[in-house]
Amino acid sequence: MKLLLLVAQTALFFSSSLSEAPNNSNSPFFSWIKELQKELFDVRQYNKHARPISNDSEQVIKVDMQFSFVRAVLNEKDGTLETNGWLGMRWVDSMMKWDPMAYGDLRNLKLMSDLLWKPDIVVFNSVRGYDPMPPSQSVLLYDGVVYYIPPLYLITPCDLDLTKWPKGFQKCEIRFGAWTLDSSEIFLGVLENQTKEVWVKRGEGLTGTGHWEADLKHYKAGNLQWKITDTTITTNSYFNCCSPYYQDVIVTIQLHRQSSMAEKVAIISSVG
C-alpha cells in the first residue's frame, strides 16, 4: 500500500519538477531533454514492439503491480462491481538507460506510455470484453525503471452469495494478466511485501499463489450501503505440464452491507 503511494508521489514529484523548469525551449534544460530523447529513440532506434532486454540484462522482465481503489459500487441487480482506480506497474527497460552526468544531470523523463514498450496486461473478466490498459503518462528513470500507472474504470461480474441476504459478505474479483506473454518473457509480481505463499493442486496444473493487500489509501465510498472489509492481491502461476507457464493477478475485494432499505424490507416481510 505504502509503496504504490510512494510511486504515485514520485511520479507527481517528477511531473512537478518538469513543469517548474524554465518555460523556454532554448534553455539548457530543454536542450538536454531533446538530446536525450534523440539518443534514446533515434540513435538507438528504440522499438516499442520488442521486449526491452539486452545481452547483460535479465531475459525475463519482472513486472510488479499494485491496484489502488478510488471508488467501488456493487450493483446487486446486475451482479456487477463498478470500480475506479489505478493499476500501478513497474519494470526495467534495459534499452532506456543513460548516464545523467552526460545530459545535464537529467535523471528522469515524463513520457506518454505509447512511446514505450509495455506488457500487454488486460482485464480478463471485464463485462465489456478484454479491457486493455489505456495510454497514460509514464515516468522513466535514468536506470531504466519505468513507472506506468493508468487510471481505470472497470465493470466486472460478481458472483453474489445471497444465503444470508440482506446481511452477509460479498467477495468480488478483478482479474489481470498478460494477453500473450508467458513466463519465458515476463514475471508478474506485486508492489508490496509478500505475506505468505501457497502451492495448490488445480486440475493437472500446479498453481503458485502469493497474497498481498490492495491499496485503499485513496478510496472514497461510492455506495454507503457497502463497506470494504478486506482486500487481497493474489498472483497465480499455471503449470499445465511444463514450461513456459502463464500468470494472472487477482484483486479480491470483500464488502459487508451496512444498514439499508433492503434489510428493513426483509424485517417487515418476516414480521408480516
Q: Count of DSSP E strands?
A: 14
Span from first to last CA?
Answer: 48 Å
Work out the count of structural domains.
1
- What is the second-level CATH architecture? Distorted Sandwich
Low-confidence stretches: 12-22, 193-209, 265-271
- CATH first level: Mainly Beta
As for the CATH topology, it is Acetylcholine Binding Protein, Chain: A
Number of helices: 3
User: What general form does the structure show?
Assistant: elongated
CATH superfamily: Neurotransmitter-gated ion-channel ligand-binding domain
Question: What are the key terms here?
Answer:
272 residues, alpha+beta, Acetylcholine Binding Protein, Chain: A, seven-stranded mixed beta sheet, seven-stranded antiparallel beta sheet, 3 helices, 14 strands, 40% strand, disordered C terminus
Question: Overview of this structure, please?
Answer:
The chain has 272 residues and is α+β, with helices and mostly antiparallel strands. It has one domain (2-271): Neurotransmitter-gated ion-channel ligand-binding domain (Acetylcholine Binding Protein, Chain: A, Distorted Sandwich), CATH 2.70.170. Helices cover 17% and strands 40% of the residues. It has three helices and 14 strands. The strands form two sheets. Strands 1, 2, 3, 6, 7, 8 and 10 form a seven-stranded mixed beta sheet that branches. A hairpin with a 6-residue loop joins strand 13 and strand 14 (246-257). The longest helix has 18 residues, at 2-19.
